[in-house]
Amino acid sequence: MKPNPSLLEELSKIRRDLTGLETAPREPDPLSAFFFALEGLSEMVVITDLEHKIVYVNAACTDLLGYNPEELMGLKANKYFEGIPGNPIDLAGLIAAEASDGFWEGEIFNRRKDGDLITINLKLTPLADSSGQVLGYVGISENITERKLMEEELINARKLESMGTLAGGIAHDFNNILAAILGNVSYARIYAEEGSELYKPLVEAEAACLRAQGLTHQLLTFSRGGKPVKEVIRVGELLKEVTGFATHGSNVSCRFDISRDLWPVEADRGQIDQVISNLVINAVQAMPEGGEIEVRAGNVELKKGAVPSIEGGRFVKVEVADKGVGIPKEYIEKIFDPYFTTKQRGSGLGLASVYSIVRNHSGAIRAVSEPGKGTTFIIYVPASKEEPQEKKMKEDIILGEGRVLLLDDEEMIRKVAARLIEQLGYEVETAVDGEEAVEKYREARESGRPFVAVILDLTVKGGMGGEEALERLKEIDPEVKAIVSSGYSIDSVMADYERAGF
Ligand SMILES: Nc1ncnc2c1ncn2[C@@H]1O[C@H](COP(=O)(O)OP(=O)(O)OP(=O)(O)O)[C@@H](O)[C@H]1O
Ligand SMILES: [Mg+2]
């Protein structure tokens, strides 16, 4: 801006008072040089009088805040800042107290004309004449909004990582026990006659086990172990399917705005399903009186730095928007924390899993919310250059015959899996570790009753695991048919089983 005449007057008074400038050369006019320097700065500069009334703002300030200089002139800077929620109530008092020491610095919020909040680092010094009498204040501030977001993102990531390690360990053991319970209950249910005394409790126990399994899967996903098993897919249909399923039976309707030529992404179908259903279920729960959920998906090209924590490039952007209760400002930083919930029966793991799945897909997620109006979750997932493969049709269960060798170090799992495989018509032999499996396979071949397939558990406590066992088996029988099994998909072998020879 061009300095206004009264300000010029004011500042030349200051200039006269400042001994340093007294000796400055007359030509070119030091005052105009001074202004050009201020106007050219990338930091925002604001000068106020003693009452905090703004007498000057530089171009960086008006550019960033979106105001005309005239709109800011005469405004009381302290009142302006104090009116923004989250800022210290008595900013002027604080500044006055510290300014007597000659300096005040702090991070505070600033609001742009369009209403957006930004975070600035403000340094404030009193403007004094040569006798030390304070004439006003100079504020120099830097926009640190992006940097703060990055820092928060990093803290969040670290916190989740340590929580994940702990939760993953518990969930793994728990999952094994659950598999045994579920297997036995399912087995009993198959044999209990429908309508008998036993049937209903068994169905209920089975349903409860499945819910518990869902919970451990959530835990495993957000722990480090949830390595996605990726394929190239287009998410359009999946979004509709999952949203439809998650809103089924509720009083919420769905609207879709999904671009027809959506770029494919490399993603784990099951995990993307989990992300969308978690978001949609939250949206439904945020609208107890019913309402509408809008699911949008489209292609975007992002410049580097446009969204913190991801590189620039081609992305598929998915949004899930509701018109529900919204999220209060003080909660918005916590919603992705594991176990953070405001619901009586919530686990608080929904968004924690969503967050870690999105990160494991090299994407980013953000929530925008206005209490009373609604919430929108925005997800970016990198687009893939490859085209999706045609999906094979699911085959019906076929009964088989022959002998199957099952390797698993957990006795409970061995028993239950053996029973279920027997249900499919096979005869089952079991082994507790790789050595035993290899030995049994050799004996069976030599005795003329070979196995038609082997099922190998990848990790065996204190013994030879599935991967090594398979190598040995191949030496005995290059045609061996092996199926990999693991309690969870942490292993890279699960993500790429064909390369490991399965
Ligand atoms: N769409 C939304 N609208 C309003 N608040 C939300 C929304 N989504 C999440 N929240 C808030 O974030 C919190 C955490 O959500 P999260 O999905 O992680 O857990 P939860 O829904 O409480 O429990 P769970 O998903 O395990 O049933 C919620 O308790 C709620 O306060
Ligand atoms: Mg939830």
Structure description:
The chain is α/β, with parallel strands linked by helices and 502 residues long. The protein folds into 4 domains: 5-143, PAS domain (Beta-Lactamase, 2-Layer Sandwich), CATH 3.30.450; 146-226; 232-389, 2-Layer Sandwich (Heat Shock Protein 90), CATH 3.30.565; 403-495, 3-Layer(aba) Sandwich (Rossmann fold), CATH 3.40.50. The protein is built from 16 helices and 16 strands. The chain has helices at 5-17, 19-22, 30-40, 59-65, 69-72, 77-82, 91-99, 145-191, 199-222, 235-247, 269-285, 350-360, 411-423, 434-446, 466-476, 492-495; strands at 44-49, 54-57, 104-111, 117-128, 134-143, 231-233, 252-258, 265-267, 291-302, 313-322, 364-370, 374-382, 403-407, 427-431, 451-457, 482-485. It has a 5-stranded antiparallel beta sheet, sandwiched between helices. The longest helix is centred in the middle third of the chain and has 47 residues, at 145-191. The protein is elongated and about 105 Å long. The termini are far apart. The relative contact order is 0.08. Bound molecules: adenosine-5'-triphosphate and magnesium ion (MG). Residues 278, 282-283, 286, 322, 324-327, 335, 340-343, 346-352, 375 line the site of adenosine-5'-triphosphate (ATP). Magnesium ion (MG) binds next to helix 11.
Features:
502 residues; alpha/beta; Beta-Lactamase; Heat Shock Protein 90; 5-stranded mixed β-sheet; 16 strands; binds adenosine-5'-triphosphate
Q: Work out the count of structural domains.
A: 4
What is the makeup of the main sheet? 5 strands, antiparallel
For the CA atoms, what is the radius of gyration?
A: 32 Å
Question: How much helical structure, as a percent, in the residues?
Answer: 40-55%
- CATH topology-level name of the largest domain: Heat Shock Protein 90
The mean pLDDT is 84
**Chain oligomer state:** single chain
CATH architecture annotation name of the largest domain: 2-Layer Sandwich
Under the CATH scheme, which class of the largest domain? Answer: Alpha Beta
